[in-house]
Amino acid sequence: MRTKDVPIKVLAKVLALALSAALLSGVPLTAQTEQPWEIGPFTRPAEGNPVIAPLPASTFTDPILKAPAHWEALHTFNPAAIVRDGKIYVLYRAEDDSGAMEIGGHTSRLGLAVSDDGIHFTRRPEPVFFPDNDNQKLREWPGGDEDPRLVEAEDGTYVLTYTQWNRLAVTVGIATSPDLLHWTKQGTAFQFAGPKYAALKYKSAGIVSRFDPAKGRLIAAQIDGHYWMYWGEGAIHLARSADLIHWTPLEDENGAPFELLGPRPKHFDSSFPETGPPPVLTSQGIVVIYNGKNAVKGGDPKLGAEAYAAGEALFQPDNPVRVAARTEHPILMPERPWEKTGQYVAGTTFAEGLVAFHGQWFLYYGCADSLVAVVTAPMK
Fold it and tell me: Which residue, 1, 157, 188, 215, could crosslink 153 as a Cys pair with Cβ 3.0–4.6 Å?
């Protein structure tokens, strides 16, 4: 998520940490509805939020600058999540203290944290994914690598979709890893989709997954012999792939990317919707958790102007294009002080990481472009 024309304030990190003790527990989040197909309702845990906050002392030697960088000094937010070896791993976006004091003005890298309970995390001291002197440098420097989503393939390979930001354009990058530590950048998602996609600015991509009872976690799902990826900010689109790396957008009769979800007046997504965590194929259909931006005029009166909240949409299980249902109200919205304002002053609860863990859903989200938090729900 990026909005360049919003005034920016730097978050006081110590305030967020102090406020974490004030969480309310065991109460479903405001404005949630409960339809049979939905994942949820979600509740905030009794303690622990925010689960990841900036660490100004963290440094690593940047391979491009060839100098120390305070890689997670200002903000830590917009997380992906995966289950591995009976633990939850969160891959989170971290911003350093370089560049201009505005959204998108710093360099972003991805840090890795691990937890036994999904709430208390141990973090690696250095980022595991970052701009480098490689064939993606022109797309990723100096803005960096942002807003990850993660899925696991059937063979155990991890597939990462992320935003490449060079401060001029955004694209979805694809990377793979056997262990979440060592990554191979595969290039852009639509690099083989035809010349008209070479200059397309696109971001926010989640690959459809399914719960595998034998493995006890989410695995990338095939439908009709293909993998499917919901993508886009402004409107949500769809692409398919045979190998999770090379993707082809579905197009309408005019040859443009087919639009599945657009804005709705008087709703939390009245300005636009944006793809959230990897969608989940269930017995009811494909559940897409997405983020909506509220319009300045004609939006949801319960939300502030330009605030982000999360909702859900259901697509038919055998036809990923066809919308079957959509929540009228958000399932997650800014309510706590660290969600209501921060680097993004209008407030966000920006969902990007969803895992099935010990009979519960854990949904990880960015708070006002500044912190990482989690909500949970029982699996039905």
Answer: 157
Question: How far apart, in whole angstroms, are the C-alpha atoms of residue 377 and residue 144?
Answer: 33
- Residue bearing tokens 């399932």: 331
- pTM, whole model, 2 decimals? 0.92
The 10s digit of each residue's pLDDT in 264-302 is: 999 999 999 999 999 999 999 999 999 999 999 999 999
- Region of residue 173 (left: phi > 0; alpha: psi -120 to 50; beta: else): beta
213: how many CB neighbours lie within 10 A of its CB? 8
* CA 192-194-196 angle, 5° bins: 135
Element (H, E) at 75: strand 75-84
Say if residues 59 and 51 touch (Cβ distance below 8 Å): no
Residues whose CB falls within 8 Å of the CB of residue 66, separated by 6 or more in sequence, listed in order: none
Domains of the chain with CATH codes: 13-378 (2.115.10.20)
pLDDT > 70: percent of the chain: 91
Extract long-range pairs of 233-236: CB within 8 Å, 24+ residues apart. 233/1, 233/202, 233/203, 233/204, 233/272, 233/274, 233/275, 234/272, 234/274, 235/259, 235/260, 235/261, 235/262, 235/263, 235/272, 235/273, 236/260, 236/261, 236/262, 236/273, 236/274, 236/275, 236/288, 236/290
What is the rounded distance in angstroms from the CA atom of residue 17 to the CA atom of residue 24? 15
pLDDT at position 137 is 98
Cross-strand bridge partners of residue 286:
281, 315
Q: What sign does the dihedral 176-180-183-189 (CA atoms) show?
A: positive
